[in-house]
Amino acid sequence: MAMIPPQRAQKLIFALVVVITTSAGRIHGAPSRWEKLSDHCYYMSLEEGGENIAAVVTEEGILLINPPSERSRATAVLEALKSISSQVPLRWIAFTEPRYAITSGAHYFVERKAVFLASSPLYKLALAAMNKDSGETTLYTSSNENADSGKLGSPAWFIFGNEIRLFPSNVEIRVCAVKSSARTAGDVFVVVPAEKVVFVGRIYTAAQYPEIDVEFGGNAAGWGEGLKQIVGSVPLLKAAIPRTKPMGKMKMEEEKSGEEEVIVVPARGRLSNLL
Predict the structure, then answer these.
(1) Which of 10, 65, 188, 221 falls 20 to 30 Å from 267 in CA-CA distance?
(2) pTM exceeds 0.85 for this model
(3) 242 occurs within a structural domain
């Protein structure tokens, strides 16, 4: 049997340690950095093929979409937001389905005084799940008259019907309820129309069959209608004044269709477009 020279053996061991350490870091370590999608939209993948966290950052406040389920990771994500804008407050949290709202990571942001945005169905499903697990309401309260009050006086849930529109720094953000029971009976998606970015949660993941969460009222029969609603919410019309291409660019780029220009950010997995 051939013997491996000592120096080569040391190099192989070192390489193996690096691979193991790198892989462990992807799974258990700190989140990676924020990636910019458009003027105001960002996302962060916690691990390769894993959870995606998203944010819309404006001068008047930050909307965070689907914070991490683990408290330790929530702390790291909040710290990483400072790399984008250290002076802008985190004002809103949006969840794309009830399960994201009942984690220790969500509870961490309750303590940070952020306002939680939720459709009425999502709120009721999350509240029922919390009551089932703990026997009492511990972290839910509302800022309007459409929801039941909980024990904490602050922060607040803002409960909406079909959608709520935010306009921080004149950036339109739509937080919309999926009308049909699809992945769950409380699905929500977020659209930034001017920048053609849509955050779809787990109702859609590129190149995968939909996973229906029956525990939270999901229904495979309504999935197609839910997806159709999301696609229909994104403006596909081209700008009235097209962007000019740089002088001296000899080869014209192939013009993209409206569907190709839209960035679709799922709660898990890779980004895609509407095609």
Answers:
(1) 221
(2) no
(3) no
Span 236-265, pLDDT tens digits: 644 334 445 555 544 444 555 666 689 999
What would the two tokens of residue 244 be? 């000019």
Residue 66: how many other CB atoms lie within 10 Å: 29
Q: Distance (Å, rounded) from C-alpha 265 to C-alpha 139?
A: 28
Please indicate, yes or no, if residue 78 is contained in any of the structural domains.
yes
* Residues of the chain above pLDDT 70, percent: 69
Chain CA centroid to CA 90, Å: 15
- What is the domain extent for residue 126? 31-233
3-state secondary structure (DSSP) of residue 53: strand
Q: Which residue has tokens 């949006």?
A: 94
Give the domain CATH number at 149. Answer: 3.60.15.10
Number of structural domains (the chain) is 1
In this structure, is residue 165 part of a structural domain? yes
